[in-house]
Each structure stands twice: as C-alpha cells, then as structure tokens.
C-alpha cells in the first residue's frame, strides 16, 4: 500500500509485510466501512495497493480492482495470492503514480500512502478525474502514534527522540480548502508482525531503520527479547493502530 516510495519496498520487506497481513484485522475493519459506501461501485482503482491488503478482499467481495503499485515485489505477491484464490477480478499495474495511463473507475482508493498525500491538492485533483462516484483515503489518525517501537528504540540506539508522524487532519483540511467536505470514520485495528526467531526480528528492525553495521545488534536483541511475544513457536511484535477513513461521494 505504499506507491510513491519507489525502491522502498524491496523483496525482503514485501515478504515481511505479507506475512504480517495474516495477523492483521485491517482488511476486515476497512472493508466494513468501504463496502456499504460503495455498493453501486463495480470498479475500484487501488492506488498504492501493495501486496493486495485491500485489493484482494475487495475482489473477493465481487469488485473489479485495478491495483497500482511501484514495487514489483509487492505486485508479484498480490498476483500469486490472486492466482491461489482463483480471483479473476484484479488487474495489476507496476508503476508509480503518474507513470501509467489509467481509465476512470467507479471509486478510487488510496490507503496508507503518505508519500502521495504530502501534496494533497495536486494528488487529489489528478486522481479525482478517475473517480466516477466515490473516493476513499485511509491515513494514520494519531501524530503521536508509535511505529515499530521507534519511540523507545530511537533514544536507546541513537540518543534522540522519534518525531511525530503524518496525520489525517492535514489531508482533511486540504480537502476542505478545495471545497471537498469529506466524511471521516476513525478505525482501530491490529497488525501483529511474526518472526521465526530473534535473529530474523533483529534483521527486520535493522532493515527498516537502515542500520547496516552490527554495532546496535546487542541492544536490539536485549530489547526485542523482552518486547516480543512468544506464541505457537513464533515471536510476535504486537501493534495496535488507529487510522482515519476519509471518504466522499461525487
């Protein structure tokens, strides 16, 4: 779900994200809000689809979905899952936003793609021409929310705080300035990340933080050994998240 961050979603991160989806309540919670508001929408353009977090369940629900993402690793996972389930209603496009020719769809969805929303007005104006009936944006709903325990890890590893995250209020205000008076629903969901062992978990955090040396390995191992939860032979990083679903009808 991270189109607009070309090069960020390598194969390793994509595989970790897909594994975490098996323990995420986001698809069920998000579709509980989206489907009742898109009953008359047969086609949906999912911008920044990732590995199909919402594209797959939307197709299961009978929607015809165009999944656009810049990460080939993510798209390959989506295509593999669609084949396994025999889903025919998904078309994939590997490209960044603005690189591909896209046809109008009944609804446009952009979920958890902060890079595109940095310039909300420009993105929405461009994407709005592709939405015939409805537009959905999903974005973080708490600027003070943690990410991967960074609020504890950054002081521990780097002796500095982890800053605020982007929040839906900026997007909502930008839409208001554009004359779009959107609806907002706040949702809560779990996204627990599983690991086979502590060494894999250390590799996960080093990859996401961008650490290439071993100087922080001991601190990471000590911290994660206490933080991760053991269950059914796996280690889990437990995350509870809050997002805003911003939506409006044309």
Write up this protein.
- By secondary structure, the protein is an alpha/beta fold.
- It has a single domain (11-148, 161-192, 240-249), classed as Vaccinia Virus protein VP39 (Rossmann fold, 3-Layer(aba) Sandwich), CATH 3.40.50.150.
- The chain contains 10 helices and 10 strands.
- The protein has helices spanning 11-21, 26-34, 55-60, 72-85, 114-117, 120-128, 150-158, 168-177, 198-209, 217-227, and strands spanning 43-47, 64-69, 90-94, 105-111, 131-140, 183-190, 193-195, 229-231, 234-237, 240-249.
- The strands form 2 sheets. Strands 3-2-1-4-5-10-6 form a 7-stranded mixed β-sheet. Strands 7-9-8 form a 3-stranded antiparallel β-sheet.
- Helix 1 runs parallel beside helix 4 (72-85).
- It is globular, with a radius of gyration of 18 Å.
- 32% of the residues are buried.
- Mean pLDDT is 95; it is low at 1-5.
List keywords for this structure.
globular, three-stranded antiparallel beta sheet, 250 residues, disordered N terminus, Rossmann fold, alpha/beta, single chain, seven-stranded mixed beta sheet, 10 helices
List the helices and strands and how they pair.
Blueprint lengths: L10 H11 L4 H9 L8 E5 L7 H6 L3 E6 L2 H14 L4 E5 L10 E7 L2 H4 L2 H9 L2 E10 L9 H9 L9 H10 L5 E8 L2 E3 L2 H12 L7 H11 L1 E3 L2 E4 L2 E10 L1
Helix pairs in contact: 1-4, 9-10
């Amino acid at each position: 779900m991270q189109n607009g961050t070309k090069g960020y979603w390598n194969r390793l991160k994509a595989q970790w994200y897909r594994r975490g989806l098996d323990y995420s309540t986001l698809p069920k919670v998000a579709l509980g809000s989206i489907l009742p508001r898109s009953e008359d929408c047969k086609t949906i353009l999912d911008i920044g689809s990732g590995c199909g977090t919402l594209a797959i369940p939307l197709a299961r629900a009978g929607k015809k979905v165009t999944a656009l993402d810049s990460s080939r690793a993510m798209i390959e996972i989506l295509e593999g899952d669609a084949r396994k389930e025999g889903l025919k209603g998904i078309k994939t496009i590997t490209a960044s936003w603005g690189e591909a020719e896209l046809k109008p769809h009944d609804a446009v969805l952009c979920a958890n793609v902060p890079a595109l929303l940095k310039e909300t007005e420009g993105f929405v104006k461009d994407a709005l021409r592709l939405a015939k009936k409805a537009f959905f944006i999903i974005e973080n709903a708490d600027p003070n929310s943690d990410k991967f325990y960074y609020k504890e890890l950054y002081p521990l590893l780097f002796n500095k705080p982890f800053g605020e995250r982007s929040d839906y209020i900026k997007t909502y205000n930008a839409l208001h300035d554009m004359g779009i008076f959107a609806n907002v629903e706040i949702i809560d969901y779990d996204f627990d990340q599983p690991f086979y062992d502590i060494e894999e978990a250390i590799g996960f955090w080093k990859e996401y933080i961008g650490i290439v040396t071993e100087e922080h390995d001991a601190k990471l191992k000590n911290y994660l050994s206490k933080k991760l939860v053991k269950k059914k032979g796996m280690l889990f990083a437990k995350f509870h998240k809050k997002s805003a679903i911003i939506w409006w009808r044309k």
